[in-house]
């Protein structure tokens, strides 16, 4: 369950960074105010989500036995 929550947070962060890169538009800052406590909390949650996804990255998913 934590992995799924982490993945959702990472997807949100990825979409936000995509908007920043493509359109120079920070959705989180737009919704919660640039530099606000709420916006910073969202950024921290995205970072926590990335940490929660690390075990998925490190997991051995090779099914060929190689």
Could you tell me the strand content as a percent range? under 5%
Poorly predicted segments: none
Counted up, domains total 1
Q: What is the tally of beta strands? A: 0
Structural category is mainly alpha
- How many separate helices? 3
What is the average per-residue confidence, as pLDDT, rounded to a whole number? 90
Helical content (DSSP H or I, runs of 4+): over 70%
Round the Cα radius of gyration to an integer and report it.
15 Å
Order of helices and strands: HHH
Sheet of most strands: none
> How far apart are the termini?
29 Å
Principal-axis shape equals elongated
Could you explain how this protein is built, in words?
The chain is mostly helical and 66 residues long. It has one domain (2-58). It contains three helices and no strands. The protein has helices at 2-23, 27-32, 37-58.
Which features does this protein show?
single chain; 66 residues; mainly alpha; 3 helices
Write the layout of secondary structure elements.
Blueprint: H1 2-23, H2 27-32, H3 37-58
Helix pairs in contact: 1-3
Question: Summarize this, please?
Answer:
The chain is mainly alpha-helical and 66 residues long.
């Amino acid at each position: 369950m934590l992995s799924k929550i982490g993945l959702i947070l990472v997807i949100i962060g990825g979409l936000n960074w995509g908007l920043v890169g493509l359109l120079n538009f920070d959705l989180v800052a737009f919704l919660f105010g640039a530099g606000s406590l709420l916006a910073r909390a969202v950024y921290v949650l995205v970072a926590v989500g990335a940490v929660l996804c690390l075990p998925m990255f490190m997991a051995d998913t090779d099914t060929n036995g190689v």
